[in-house]
Amino acid sequence: MKTIVKYVVLKSLDYQLGTPLFQEELDAEGSYFDQIPSVIQYQNHQFKVKSKELKRIFLAEENEDTQTIIVKVLAI
């Protein structure tokens, strides 16, 4: 399934509130949402996952499932 994961910073000294940290597009299973770790590392910083939101869409014309996951993180 086509999966887009967007990481957004909620609070950090180095990033403004709501700053998109990074985005990745991958081919993942529907259970990928549950496999996102509670702490991620990016550019020598550690971030704690505060919340995750899942939006899944089935495109009937293309017979394809896609999901978008928004991960909101706090700097630790």
User: What oligomeric state best describes the polypeptide chains here?
Assistant: single chain
Overall morphology: elongated
List the strand order in the largest sheet. Answer: 2-1-5-4-3
Major sheet size, sense and barrel closure: 5 strands, mixed
- Strand-pairing-aware structural class: mainly beta
Count the E strands: 5
Cα distance spanning the termini: 32 Å
State mean pLDDT (0 to 100 scale).
90
Summed up, the helix count is 1
Low confidence ranges = none
Give helix and strand order, one letter per element, not per position. EEHEEE
Short précis:
With 76 residues, this protein is mainly beta. It is built from one helix and five strands. The longest helix has 4 residues, at 32-35.
Please characterize this protein's 3D structure.
With 76 residues, the protein is mainly beta. 5% of the residues lie in helices and 64% in strands. It has a five-stranded mixed beta sheet, with no helix packed on it. The longest helix has 4 residues, at 32-35. The mean pLDDT is 90.
SSE diagram, text form:
Layout: E1 2-11, E2 20-27, H1 32-35, E3 39-42, E4 45-59, E5 64-75
Parallel strand pairs: 1-5
Antiparallel strand pairs: 1-2, 3-4, 4-5
Identify the notable features of this structure and list them briefly.
76 residues; 5 strands; 1 helix
